Amino acid sequence: MTYAKLTARITLGHGLGIGPHYLPWLTLRKKNPSPQSNQVISRMPPLGRTAHYFSRGEYHTALFLLWLGVEDLREQFPIWPIPHPHPLDLYGVAQDKPRPWSRGLLAIAAAAGVEHGVEFGTNVPYVASLDLLATTRLGGRSALTIFSSKPINSPVDDVKWRTLERLELERRYAIDIAARYYVSSAALISVFTAGQLENWLDASNLRYFPHLENYAAQFAASFNESKALSILEAVNKASSQCSLDLDQAWFLFRHCAWTQAIDIDPTVRILHSYPARPGGRALRQAWQQRLFGEAWT
Length: 297
Prior knowledge:
With about 300 residues, this protein is an alpha+beta fold. It contains nine helices and six strands, in the order H-E-E-H-E-H-E-E-H-E-H-H-H-H-H.
């Protein structure tokens, strides 16, 4: 990538913005599929935008983090080689103390004794990127957590030296911006659990069905009063009590499952002919505490 192309990407807003206005530094095209991983371009309703994940592990981790309730989640987030503002300064929210700029990855690499690297065929420093950068609001302040999804299945796996160097640079960058940092083997959750969350994803909010907002609390209350009934029976009952057709009722069921207004465990098989198995709320709180140091739901 030439200097002109880098400048053009920055001008277009890649790597900038927050929430629905964020545009990832790297985006998927037909030209760059990976033979080793299943890449995913997906509309993510909790983010209000389309997201680009360079592996299915990244996508599954993103699903899980959004279900946990992170405030924002930016994929393919750039680590600029030169000094740059703290990633939270883009939010423009009040803070307890000024956030220091990052030194930039060139300085971090030099301090680590690691070669930074350049864009292929040029002498332009390459722009590294983080798989996932999560923002949470804890104790009245915003905080960052970095997630790196790598196909490392065992501590004894033969990992390329350059991969280890890049992980070390990410770790040092996390320290630079006072962020938590995790490296996961592909995804934080099983494919099975990810499938359950994906089934609920399109109902994660009611942005396109605002009329259902008036029924969500009543629907959840009716369902929760019918814990001895099968899911099918409980949905039918709540549908009748809320005067909703079955399509709307099932959409609300998936919405309430995502928000955990209905306590249901996504790690076990959900059979509509059986009662809902609780445990989702406890699971979510445990993982919030484990990953971010504090539970908020």
